[in-house]
Amino acid sequence: MPLKMRRNLSPKPPEPCMLTECMQVIAGAWAPNVIWSLRAGRRRFSELKADIPPVSSKVLSARLSELEERGVLSRHVRPTSPPSVEYELTELGQELIPALEAIVQVGHKLKLMRAHELDSEAAE
Amino acid sequence: MPLKMRRNLSPKPPEPCMLTECMQVIAGAWAPNVIWSLRAGRRRFSELKADIPPVSSKVLSARLSELEERGVLSRHVRPTSPPSVEYELTELGQELIPALEAIVQVGHKLKLMRAHELDSEAAE
DNA sequence: CAGGATCCACACAGATACTG
DNA sequence: CAGTATCTGTGTGGATCCTG
């Protein structure tokens, strides 16, 4: 499930829209899901991977790096015998949660609307 | 500026994450920008194209169709001599505005943080 | 366990040209 | 003006394999 989980960057030019630039923060496949999974608190790499089954290690790793670099989340390495790394949203990262929640809400409502429309059609 | 303005779909599989599904609503290159441009009210095709310079007619058209189909915006054709079409956010579409604003805010803050960090480094 | 390296496919945006 | 059709390039994610 990736073919369309692309980012929202802009390679070369004038970048007239600030929004585009800001959208980069959550750009990249699965990035929103990562943030979503971290809502409740810090999680380990494997936990995140389990939360988002279809994501591959490579991509998850890449996304985590980007999000860390962008200041959305922080990485904590714990010196245990089997390596253990935890990720956590930064304060700024937490500000993204309401945004994602709003999107989910709208998505939900639209879904309900569609279901309702289908019902109406079926009734005829 | 498009190479990375891809959508956030998911082609085939199990789709375990509701978020992913909801994100589709604003999926596709420039989709957020379109919604952003329509914040203030209805706009015509050419106005939208002017608002978002780097977008091509083809892509803008595609995005508008998708957003309409998804119930985020509505299309009004006006029977004038030169064809004139206006687009407008639906009620649900308007609910996405706060979400985008939140993202922009975070993007902004992160930008400021970065600038600050660079200053600190430069000072040394 | 956490994640880096490779190789590959393909969906998507761009450019251009055309229509009513 | 508002779009559509076609062709092409490319970034990005998936799968797999491998390591400390």
From TrEMBL, chains A, B:
Pfam families: HxlR
Domain HTH hxlR-type positions: 17-115
Gene3D superfamilies: Winged helix-like DNA-binding domain superfamily/Winged helix DNA-binding domain (1.10.10.10)
Superkingdom per UniProt: Bacteria
InterPro entries attached to this UniProt entry: HTH_HxlR, WH-like_DNA-bd_sf, WH_DNA-bd_sf
Keyword terms: DNA-binding, Transcription, Transcription regulation
Transmembrane annotation, as ranges: none
Protein name: Helix-turn-helix domain-containing protein
